[in-house]
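Task card 7
Instruction: Convert sequence to structure tokens.
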Amino acid sequence: MKSQYFIAILFATSLYWMYLLYEPFLMGMTIAALLAISTASINHYFEQLFSSRLLAAIMSSLLLAILFFAPLGYFLATLTIKLNHLEPNTLRNIELYINGFITNPPEFLLFLKPYLSEPVKSIDINSVTANALHVAAKIGTFSAGFVKNAFLVIVFYFFALYNGAHIVAFLKRVVQMSVEDSTLLARELSAVMSVVFYSIIATAMLEGALFGIAISYMGYNGILFGIMYGFASLLPVIGGILMWLPFMIYELSMGHTANAVFIALYSIIVISIIADTFVKPLIIKEINHKLLKENDAKLNELVIFFAIIAGLATFGFWGMILGPAITAFFLAILKLFEARTQECETKNQL
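Output:
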């Protein structure tokens, strides 16, 4: 047996056992690496500011934990507490209002009555309450797991930033990829991930803040529901509706018609139309302009939109990062094939 074959067998065997060993952490390591790529510009700024790679990695990790994971942790913990203290009378009032609304709807909605009567009859408030408690238990379990995963992501993220240059240089030597190819892959992936990450953070914070401020004036926890709306806004079209529609129904069930009309109109006009339709594209355009150089790939927003949707559907929460990353990597590979094909054609013509 040739020595090359023997080394290849040893490598394949060790790779298999490495996969078994680190399989529980692969998702966290992948997310951390992608986040490190997305926020490389921030880490570079900290390196210049502190003249220390270690301090830069620490500051970047703290910033990520504060901006990204702290709101999620607060949301999950608060939601678990709220669901555990949910009173059946609250659900009963909502059920009575919905039943009354369907039994005697406004004249312009009379055509919906035959379609809504049967589904409402099948609703059992006791089962809804039991399911709410079950959901609370599930969320509590998920919260504990999320805290653990978030901690691991932050740790992997720190090491990815601190040792990123050495890791990339080592991989280039192992793979033996040309400088042009590796530069193209790195530029394409970094450009897409940076724009996607900063766009998600900026738009979620904007829409969450707008909703949180409005809902706080109605006596609700503006921080909690602002965070909820911010993450719900990641779901195009239906994300905002999932937040303001329950508030409208609840306010109507409590007899607060003015509040219900306000939250519906405010969410539709101010957030969905003005912020989401007009302000959000300006934010993305500005981020594109700031982050992408002239020689970088210009981002196709439609491709990124479907990549986020597909990622969320396939991988869940982390899909909003994995979807665009997978798509960007695939498109970069296609560009490499295109470049190699052009080189071959040029050589054949000569």
